[in-house]
Amino acid sequence: MAASATSCLLSFARYRVWLATLAAAVLTACAVDPQSATDAEPLVDVPPGFAEQTYPPDNVPTPERVALGKRLFYDLRLSNANDVSCGTCHDPAKAFTDGLPTSRGTSGRMGVRNAPSLANVGYLPALMREGGVPTLEMQILVPIQEHAEFDLEAPFLVSRLSVDSALQQMSRWAYSRPLDIWVITRAIASFERTLVSGRSRADEGRLSDAERRGKEIFHRVGCGTCHGGPLYTNNRMACNGLLESYADRGRARLTNNASDEAVFRVPSLRNVGRTAPYLHNGSIASLTVVIQRYNSGGYPHPNKDMLLKPLNLSASECDDLEAFLLALTDDRFTTNPRFRP
After folding, report:
1. Second label for 227, Cα 20 to 30 Å away, from 49, 125, 135, 287?
2. What percent of the chain is predicted at pLDDT more than 90?
């Protein structure tokens, strides 16, 4: 009897060891993003005509950092009520926007601005619509602490996520340190730097007759002055005069200068067919109406950019211009499984 009991105890002990080993193996498998390790596609794509991104010395993207950042990007625990994540407002299918006039944050709170696309965000010299944040790492703190977005203090977020052993393991693989706010911001920034879009039909020259006419119109009337280059933006700050009045002060919120009232960063036109509604407040529902506003010259405003004049295009020319803009949709980008949760 005693020998039998001892044998049972030894068997149970071996069983517990086996369970622990299995759990560790499962944990490790779940912690790794297989695509980050096995996909032949470059970790950060550089399409033809694009420059290499410039990375902070302490946050050069690696497969481990990108995998952790992707995991955090879609983690609902980043919000107070565990109900929204970065991916809630930045859906890959919508070119990392959300299709709403203004974004919805934790507990259903509504923000005051339209979610900008994250396509090519790693190339931006300054973040936010008023250009007030210089790095991706710093920008990530904004939605985390903003009342109408995630509404969490950084120490509480770290405390909440630190109990997740898989995240802790991924943090050590990625940054050789336990999970903290430094790791969280840098990992998400690393994932966002992989969100490169530059392989549309327009880039490849596969345009219809109407799209080719639209491309010629685009350059003839000067659209490319503000929306030129591989990013289809010059990243300047400007007032476009497309609204009769601006409740949002724009860059003046940052500088408090009257000359910055209603001034916002010029957005990229890449994937513009997927990022409706438009403008900083999502007040224009369709690309057709945006083109009509520009065609008429928009509304007067003391800070309206002097480059903006009536285009005087015919209805058919407006249609061709819109056709070209729709050809800037990068289906490879919006359907890439590496960017999805």
Report:
1. 135
2. 88
